[in-house]
């Protein structure tokens, strides 16, 4: 029997949100109970009852509510959202959320239909560790290619400030330092480009709202980082082409930019689970070339208690790679392997 909507919401509340977001936990558990009782949640979420498990229904539902908060359409609920300065207890957000569902039933239902689209710039913290290691071994400079780049914000990493360790001091995007890595060499990027099946343009107000809504309403650090990265993106445009990873990589790697002695690095974070096995096989084959380094920030199959590994795949066939660090789904904090 496939899980019910209530079971999907509870599963997410208990396994994803429990330690990291009292707001999400309260909303999802409240909605699950309400679904079981045949309340307004069942009217809002009923069209999605048969959605496939990978379609992130709890995240889409939470993003729909957060969007109404961010656009000023749910002031009573907003009081529980630290991302808009709310100071009421985040874990008590369900009662006002239920009233929003009652008043804005069709709107929340429609917004819950939007796909979940994130671009987590915190993942540049582990990726920076990997890129620094490539430069330490090769001397750089780097031609940086990202597959599954979303809005391309990760490709702006050298405009972000990482604690007191690295990056421009006046950057509006402030991230924690990688921690255990003390020496980060100068990284010079000669070219940066990305692809995504569904790219978002950071210059587009709707795209910015989609990205902002997808962050949980009590994760203020993540929200500020995103805002900072969007500010950086306003002054530096990085092309993200609408294309599948393998097809785009094949085209990119067939070209050798003239007059540049750059090291090609392909990086990706939290993309693999979305790409079908044949296409991923092609990605691995394409990047197993003698002139390509690959940095992978992807969860291992099954739960790894150490977290998400950052793997450095040296040029040539190196499918396992070296683990350089472990992090969380959103990047920091990192730990040494
Ligand atoms: C969870 S998001 C991660 C985005 C970004 N890498 C980050 O860490 O913030 C996964 C991204 O992979 C993209 N994607 C899924 N399948 C893809 C494919 N076959 N080729 C390229 N991008 C793909 C999705 O559109 C989405 O933007």
Would you write up a description of this structure?
- With 337 residues, the chain is of the alpha/beta class.
- It folds into 2 domains: 108 residues, no CATH class; 215 residues, 3-Layer(aba) Sandwich (Rossmann fold), CATH 3.40.50.
- The chain is built from 12 helices and 10 strands.
- Strands 5-4-1-6-7-8-9-10 form an 8-stranded mixed beta sheet, with helices on both faces. Strands 2-3 form a two-stranded parallel ribbon.
- A hairpin with an 8-residue loop joins strand 8 and strand 9.
- Helix 1 runs antiparallel to helix 2 and helix 11 runs parallel beside helix 12.
- The radius of gyration is 21 Å and the shape is globular.
- The protein binds S-adenosylmethionine.
The run of helices and strands is HHHHHHHHEEEEHHEHEHEEEE
Query: What is the number of E strands?
Result: 10
Task: List low-confidence stretches.
Answer: none
Helix/strand/pairing class, anyone? alpha/beta
Largest sheet: 8 strands, mixed
The total number of structural domains is: 2
The end-to-end distance, rounded to whole angstroms, is 40 Å
General shape: globular
Percentage of β-strand residues = 15-25%
The CATH architecture of the largest domain: 3-Layer(aba) Sandwich
> In percent, how helical is the residue content?
25-40%
Question: Tally the helices: what do you get?
Answer: 12
Residue-averaged pLDDT: 94
**If you compute it from the alpha carbons, what radius of gyration comes out, rounded to the nearest whole angstrom?**
21 Å
Small molecules bound? S-adenosylmethionine
Strand arrangement within the widest β-sheet reads 5-4-1-6-7-8-9-10
Give the class-level CATH name of the largest domain: Alpha Beta
**Could you say what the CATH topology of the largest domain is called?**
Rossmann fold
């Amino acid at each position: 029997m496939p899980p019910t909507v209530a079971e999907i919401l509870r599963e997410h509340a208990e396994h994803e949100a429990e330690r990291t977001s009292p707001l999400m936990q309260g909303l999802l558990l409240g909605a699950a109970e309400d679904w079981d009782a045949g309340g307004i949640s069942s009217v809002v979420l009923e069209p999605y009852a048969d959605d496939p498990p990978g379609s992130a229904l709890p995240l889409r539902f939470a993003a729909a509510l957060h969007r109404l908060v961010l656009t000023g359409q749910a002031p009573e609920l907003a009081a529980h959202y630290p991302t808009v300065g709310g100071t009421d207890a985040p874990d008590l957000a369900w009662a006002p959320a239920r009233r929003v569902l009652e008043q804005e039933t069709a709107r929340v239902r429609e917004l819950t239909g939007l796909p979940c689209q994130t671009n987590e710039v915190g993942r540049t913290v582990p990726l920076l560790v990997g890129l620094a290691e490539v430069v330490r071994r090769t001397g750089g400079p780097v031609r940086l290619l990202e597959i599954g780049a979303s809005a391309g914000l990760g490709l702006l990493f050298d405009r972000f400030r990482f604690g007191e360790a690295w990056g421009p001091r006046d950057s509006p995007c402030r991230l924690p330092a990688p921690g255990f890595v003390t020496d980060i060499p100068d990284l010079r990027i000669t070219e940066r480009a990305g692809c995504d099946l569904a790219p978002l343009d950071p210059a587009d107000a709707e795209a910015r709202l989609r990205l902002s809504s997808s962050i949980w309403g009590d994760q203020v650090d993540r929200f500020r980082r995103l805002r900072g990265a969007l500010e950086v993106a306003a002054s530096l445009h990085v092309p993200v082409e609408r294309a599948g990873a393998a097809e785009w990589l094949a085209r990119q790697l067939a070209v050798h930019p003239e007059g540049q002695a750059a090291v090609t690095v392909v990086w990706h974070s939290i993309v693999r689970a979305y790409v079908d096995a044949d296409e991923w096989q092609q990605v691995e084959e394409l990047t197993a070339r003698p002139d390509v380094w690959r940095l992978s920030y992807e969860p291992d199959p099954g739960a790894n208690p150490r977290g998400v590994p950052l793997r450095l795949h040296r040029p040539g066939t190196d499918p396992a790679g070296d683990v350089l660090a472990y992090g969380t789904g959103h990047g920091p904090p990192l730990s040494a392997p």
